[in-house]
Hints:
This protein is an alpha/beta fold. Helix content is 45%, strand content 13%.
Amino acid sequence: MDLSGTTALVTGANRGIGRALTEALAARPLRLVLAGVRDPGSFEPIPNVRPIRMDLSSRESIDECVAAIDEPVDLLINNAGQMTGGLLEEQDMDAVYAMFQVNLVGVAHLTSRLLPGMLERGRGTIVNNASISGYAYFPAASTYAASKAGVVALTESLRRELDGTGVRALHVVTPGVNTDMLDATEEVYGRYMDTSGWDKVEPDEWADKVLAAVEAGKSIVGPGGKLAYAKLASRGPAFLVDALSGRMFSRQPRR
């Protein structure tokens, strides 16, 4: 996709990967970058970036936020997400419901609202953050992995629906990116799993890789490193991931 003169919307743009993607887009020759955040007033300014309210927590809030967008969006990056983890019976179900809303239902809803304009113009790209958890289903990550597996299925089905329309869909298999969310993930999962060997990528490096894939018209961005083997193993015999999980996981808290 040629990004020259286009308008992009990045959700969860206030920090981490979303902030890095927004900064990387602002450095390219786009017409405008919309930074989707829950509180636009708290957004640290970036040249050529307009913060807009984007609250994915409910059907009503998504409709309100979309109705306020007065720009034709050519590139939608569904980056916003929440994390849940731990043994399933110990997880807070209010947090689990909220996570599914943001990670999966909100992605489908927001995309469905912006897609008609892309189809009418005959061009556009939708990028969905699927995570390595959308492929490798490790213990202590049951609900989060389920949400991200749903993102993979949603994006792949949509990609096939859009064939021949000029609109593309791709999903990114996000690895461990060095952000506050990764720190929180290690804190939650680290009670039951050995996270010391996790690969870590810097946010700006990952953002450049994602946008390069957008510009090249790719349909998937792989994680690279050791996680590439985990992704590959996830599509093979289950015993491969079972063996890896057995080495990393214990139902007795590690700390």
